[in-house]
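Comment thread on ticket #2218

A.B. wrote:
> Attaching the input chain for the structure job we discussed in standup.
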Amino acid sequence: MPKPYLRVPICIPKFDEEAIQDVANAVKSGWVSAGEQVIQFEKKLADYFGVKHAITVNSGTAAIDVALRALRLRNKEILTTATSCSPTAEGIVGSGNAPVMVDISKEDYNVDTSKIEESITKNTGAILPVHLYGRPADMDKILEIGKKHNLPVIEDCAQATGAKYKGKKVGSFADIGCFSLNISKVITTGEGGFITTDNDEIARMAKIARNYGRDPKNTDFLYEYYGYNFKYTNLHAALGLSQVKKIDPYIRSRRENAAYLKKQLEGLPNLQLPAEKPHEFSVYFCFPMLLKKTGVRDNLKRFLEERGIESRTLFRPMFKQPYYICLFGEKNIPCPNAEYVGDNGFYVGCCPGLTTEQLDYAANTIKEGLKLYASG
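C.D. wrote:
> Ran it. Output below, let me know if you need it in another format.
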């Protein structure tokens, strides 16, 4: 009887007894909506990122939405990367603005900073770079462009909690940083998100935007702005209080696993592996790879899945997504790098909890699949 395939998942959420007890205590307190644990969690996050304010919300999508509302941007064009997870564009649309897609670099999958200025118009409201797959974008150049054109910059750090650019954590460079606490992220509370900022007025407006458009200090039902219920709960925050202590150990484990995979796969033809420049510190949300031979990615991905190795395609360009076409029409947006990466990229997991046996199995199976589908 053949030996069953070893399973290698994308992510393995880890919750210890401290987390379980913290959540139990929140339940026993009877106060399960936003309360003291949320306040404590926000303080811990602000301390970790070295910012004045961290404001929790109920998803990473809401973080983007709230950030734009906090800047009072509406009916504006928001420049962002053509390649990201859908919440980046959805948060822009939800806040009453329109995403404008800028092509990416095939090297790091982040926005190509040389293409940003050509997309700026008189109706541009902000620049929203994404630190994709845990690797920091070129913040010096992005901030320089923002300053030159008097545009606020919002960092999408959903996949990059703890990543650093020139020794400084992402989410602490721009006017606002936006984060996700979804199950697959560096730390998780199941769902959730938060924004970071040093600006008191942005923080004040963000707290209003997440609270139906009402200032939480106002005990009367007076709604000054249009908003949603984007609030976070004590149950989630209780889980987060134990998670925030583990950000750096989790990152260390991800980096070790990524380095191990890289060593096993380096030198293979037709495969681009993830890399870092000396001033970058990636947290490896995943282990992204790009095939140099076109038209074989889907067969390789199927080969991995059949053998128990969970994988995902790298993100397709947002302007190719059906909902984007429905909202804005089918447009000829010149983003050849984004299209190539979307057609030929894939990733596997390198999360904490994976064993050496699983990493070896993943690497050997990728090698086997490349011989079958990408040789020659």
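A.B. wrote:
> Thanks. Noting for the ticket: The first strand starts at residue 53 and ends at 57.
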